[in-house]
Amino acid sequence: MTHELASKTEPVSRRIISGFVLVPLVAFALMVLFGWGLFRGGDDLPSALLDKPVPEFALPPVIGREESLSTQDLIDHVSLVNVFASWCVPCRAEHPLFMELSATAEVPLYGINYKDPPEQARAWLDELGDPYDRIGADINGRAGIEWGVYGVPETFVIAPDGTIVYRHVGPITRTILQDTLLPIVRDLKTQADKESMP
């Protein structure tokens, strides 16, 4: 009888042990895959808007800020548009770089606050600082859809004619800022200066 009971419980205990080993392995593999996709950069993701005008949009300001954001604000100068949210951990990681960039005044930085509860957006900016020249509150995510946003953060380089010239998906690092975004910004500014010469 004892031998019979042992043989019945053995497969159950093996399944439990297998579950204890298999579940953490699967979870770890998914975390590695997610982290790789998040931090490797997203430059290879397609964007139907590259080399096309920014979409028509008009967003109200974030609570506690006076300046709203619309298509017209992105015309006649080179600029960066950053799509961010207070609930986004990578947005918090890239934020200090935007604060540094804002202090240099090299290029206007505009924000689209994506699907954020208004009070949380204000609290986040009050806590971390506000590097944006203007911020639009995209509470329902409609503008994000128009911009083709996959997720936050995303950053776009806009030419003076309002064309989207570059898109980066994922957090901005110092290397991406110095080696990719700012060289594009400087080239666009040089071209605009040459075109404005008589």
Description:
The chain is an alpha/beta fold. The protein has 5 helices and 7 strands. It has helices at residues 2-39, 89-104, 118-128, 142-147, 174-196; strands at residues 58-59, 69-70, 79-84, 109-114, 134-138, 154-158, 164-169. Strands 5-4-3-6-7 form a 5-stranded mixed β-sheet.
Give the fraction of residues assigned to helices.
40-55%
Q: State the secondary-structure class.
A: alpha/beta
The termini sit apart by 102 Å
Q: Low-confidence spans: pLDDT under 50, at least 5 residues? A: 26-45
Instruction: Give the strand line-up of the largest sheet.
Output: 5-4-3-6-7
User: How much of the residues is beta strand, in percent?
Assistant: 15-25%
Order of helix and strand elements from N to C terminus = HEEEHEHEHEEH
Shape: globular
Q: Provide mean pLDDT, rounded.
A: 85
Features of the shown structure:
single chain; 198 residues; alpha/beta; two-stranded antiparallel ribbon
A few lines on this structure:
This protein has 198 residues and is of the alpha/beta class. The chain is 47% helix and 16% strand.
Task: Reconstruct the topology from this structure.
Layout: H1 2-39, E1 58-59, E2 69-70, E3 79-84, H2 89-104, E4 109-114, H3 118-128, E5 134-138, H4 142-147, E6 154-158, E7 164-169, H5 174-196
